[in-house]
Amino acid sequence: MTTRNHNVTAVFVALLALASWSHGVVSAAQAAALKIVVVEGEGAVNIIQQKTAVAPVIEVRDRNDQPVSGALVRFAIQKGRATFSGARTLSVTTDAAGRATASGLTPIGSGALRIGATATFQGQTAAATIAQTTVLTTAAGGGLSPLAVAALAGGGIAGAVVAKNTISSGRTFSGSIDGQFVMTIVTVSAGGSTSCASTRSIRGPVTIEMEEHGDGRVTGSLATNATEAEIGSSNCGFGTGPVNLSGDIGGTVQNISFARQATSPSNTPLMVTITLTFAGALDNGIITGALTYGKVLSGPNGTATANGSGTATIPVTLR
């Protein structure tokens, strides 16, 4: 009985670690250990008629002000009309110099443009905002400063800026999920094996922000803020935890797709992986489809080894 309690406690601790990680909780010390320096793009002026735009370039640095390679950087259009080759977000990994470029920046309307950059590396995060301005032509820009005109003419401009297809105005679709699944855990030790089954619920809001393109494509993002909880008592020792995953959508109006995976921190002995996928279609202003949620765990569990899995497919209606 003592060994079983120890194994259950180890599983519970690993799941709590995953919950905190997926919810984006980072200590102040970790946040301060990583920073973003904007190398190019801040204050830039993009001219649609001349097909010019300044692709933001950022550099990720550690607490010693040294470049960090292999960091995951997510660029996102926070304000204004622009895309990254048709998408509102772009994920890039920093190179050996710690730099990441938001290539494919495509302004599709004049006005203020604000681009967010978020870097993640070994549990640490950092964020920065890049402000730009987009004009239709230099003449329509309302009198660009000589310095701005000189910069635009200097040739230091990267990225195509003319959209090949008309994009409709973006729209937000909202709804919720409410489903159940059974997760079974098998723990093997020198004394034999034990197993338990836990019936779980997953409930909460789901949101899709989507734009339709003239060639039939759709781009945008999907986000969830649900909670996974145990129903009743199964003596598995599972606690509740958030399911807070988001990412880009793709496909067409009749085949909207999404896939996202999250894994527990590398310093957690028991590896827990959550997978979230969605497939659906837009018809008469309503998105209908199914969201599939899966969880797999495996690895050391005290003096034993644990393996477990569970999957739920939940109907979704978003309006």
Notable traits:
mainly beta; 319 residues; flat; disordered N terminus; 2 domains; eight-stranded antiparallel β-barrel; five-stranded mixed β-sheet
Summarize the structure.
The protein has helices at 2-22, 28-32, 146-153; strands at residues 35-40, 45-47, 57-61, 72-79, 82-84, 89-93, 99-101, 105-107, 111-121, 124-135, 171-189, 192-212, 218-224, 226-230, 241-243, 246-252, 255-263, 271-283, 286-301, 304-318. It is mainly beta and 319 residues long. The chain folds into two domains: 2-25 and 168-318, no CATH class; 33-153, Immunoglobulins (Immunoglobulin-like, Sandwich).
How many DSSP E strands?
20
Q: Topology as H/E string?
A: HHEEEEEEEEEEHEEEEEEEEEE
- Gap between N and C termini, in Å? 50 Å
Write down the domain tally: 2
Q: Helix count?
A: 3
**Percent in strands:** over 45%
Runs in which pLDDT lies below 50 for 5 or more consecutive residues are 1-31, 139-169
Main sheet characteristics:
8 strands, antiparallel, barrel
- Rounded mean pLDDT is 77
Based on Cα principal axes, name the global outline: flat
- The percent of residues in helical segments reads 10-25%
Radius of gyration: 23 Å
Q: What is the topology, as strand order, of the major beta sheet? A: 11-12-13-16-17-18-19-20
Which structural class is indicated by helix and strand composition? Answer: mainly beta
Folded structure, characterized:
- By secondary structure, the protein is mainly beta.
- The chain folds into 2 domains: 2-25 and 168-318, no CATH class; 33-153, Sandwich (Immunoglobulin-like), CATH 2.60.40.10.
- It is built from 3 helices and 20 strands.
- The protein has helices spanning 2-22, 28-32, 146-153; strands spanning 35-40, 45-47, 57-61, 72-79, 82-84, 89-93, 99-101, 105-107, 111-121, 124-135, 171-189, 192-212, 218-224, 226-230, 241-243, 246-252, 255-263, 271-283, 286-301, 304-318.
- It has an 8-stranded antiparallel beta barrel.
- Strand 17 (255-263) and strand 18 form a beta hairpin.
- It starts with a helix and ends with a strand.
- 34% of the residues are buried.
